[in-house]
Amino acid sequence: MHAAAGTSASPADSPAPAAPIVVLAVVVALAKLAHVLGPAVPAVVYALVFGIVAGYGARRAGHHNLSLPYEVPLTAGFVMMGAQVDASVFGLVGWRGLASVALLWVAVVSAFWLAARLRLLPSRLAGLLALGLSGCGVSAVVAVSRQDPDSRGAPQTVATLVILLSGAAALLAYPVLGAHLDASTFGTFTGLTVANNAEAIATASTRENPAQLIAAAYKVVVNAFEGLAIVLYLWLFAPRRGARRTKLALPKVPGFVIGFALVAGVTLLGAFNEAERATLGSLTQWAFFIALVGVGFRTRLDQLVPAARPALLGLVLWALTAALVLAALLYL
Amino acid sequence: MKARTLILLKRRFATEFASTLLALALIALVKIGLLNLVGF
């Protein structure tokens, strides 16, 4: 045994048990500091970019086995998100709004299902894109990886990238394209078709009231159905081992979905006041921020180069479904 | 193979259990108002 081996970690060395937590805490702190200094860019972008850079640095230093423990904050964040479910927003959105959410889901799932059937997209990636772009965003894409190991790595990274790019595209294009829409329709369109909460609210805030309020209400409604969307994804795209795809077996409901439903249930029963819900919302954002740093850490940009074509196709399909939703809002 | 599956299942269960406990603990801290004191 050489003395040098004890001072510098070789690729075969396993890191100290506390090392992943320390690395995660440092990268999260740096990403948060960057967001505080540059709040114009959404927090999720800082989380992903800092995670990717830290992961690249760790692998360059030979720590190939280092992975950050992001699953606990992710699942805890998902459970706490149940506190954001509010009965009043269902009233604001109304039955027409719920029908619009259903239309969006049908359009997005059909588009990506067709793309997978025509072999334009790998089926796993098509499923993740349908899940994320149905309005559930990055949190749902990250959440399903626990139950569906095949979605980890490149499919998850590409889907996350497409969702972030679609949000950036909406932030730039919607204020111009939607200049002639009234504020209410603009808020509905934004809340429905921009997958991530932060980008949806930011896009809606480019218009006068009640655009932002309505966009936020749609995001809450879609988030309330996120558990259902995840179960649907697992049923359609992650068949149980040994089960035939055509066999209609009941999907296994993940524990975090049950936790989310329970917290949503007690919230609807009035367990939390406004201040407590705001605090839990803030904690949820923190939890997803930490989880995204972990996702970025294990993202390998070299895996993304071959994915440029499917990522572009995902963006085109998202734009088409957004156009369909806009047409339905204007003419139905 | 079976032992490896068992380890993975145990790890998944432990993660899920720890996550649920963390979420419940944070919700309890919010309910008693302790997290408001640290700026949340």
Keywords:
heterodimer; A: about 325 residues; mainly alpha; 15 helices; globular; B: about 40 residues; 2 helices; about 85% helix; about 0% strand
Shape of chain B: rod-shaped
Task: Please count the beta strands of chain B (DSSP E, at least 2 residues each).
Answer: 0
Order of helices and strands of chain B: HH
Structural class of chain A: mainly alpha
What global shape of chain A is seen? globular
Beta-strand proportion of chain B: under 5%
Indicate the low-confidence ranges of chain B by residue numbers: none
What is the helix content of chain A? over 70%
Rounded to an integer, what's the Rg of chain A over CA atoms?
20 Å
H/E element order of chain A: HHHHHHHHHHHHHHH
Classify the secondary structure makeup of chain B into a structural class. mainly alpha
Which helices and strands occur, and which strands form pairs?
The complex is a heterodimer of chains A (332) and B (40).
Chain A lengths: L3 H4 L11 H19 L5 H18 L10 H10 L6 H31 L5 H22 L9 H24 L5 H11 L3 H8 L6 H14 L1 H12 L17 H14 L5 H24 L3 H4 L3 H24 L1
Helix pairs in contact in A: 2-3, 2-13, 3-13, 4-12, 4-13, 5-6, 5-10, 5-15, 6-7, 6-11, 7-9, 7-15, 8-9, 8-10, 8-15, 9-10, 11-12
Chain B lengths: L1 H30 L2 H4 L3
Task: Summarize this structure briefly.
The complex is a heterodimer of chains A (332) and B (40). Chain A is mainly alpha-helical and 332 residues long.
Task: Report on this structure.
The complex is a heterodimer of chains A (332) and B (40). With 332 residues, chain A is mainly α. Chain A has a domain at 83-287 and 308-331. Chain A has helices at 4-7, 19-37, 43-60, 71-80, 87-117, 123-144, 154-177, 183-193, 197-204, 211-224, 226-237, 255-268, 274-297, 301-304, 308-331. In chain A, 47% of the residues are buried. Chain B has helices at 2-31, 34-37. Chains A and B meet through helix 4, helix 12 and helix 13 of A and helix 1 of B.
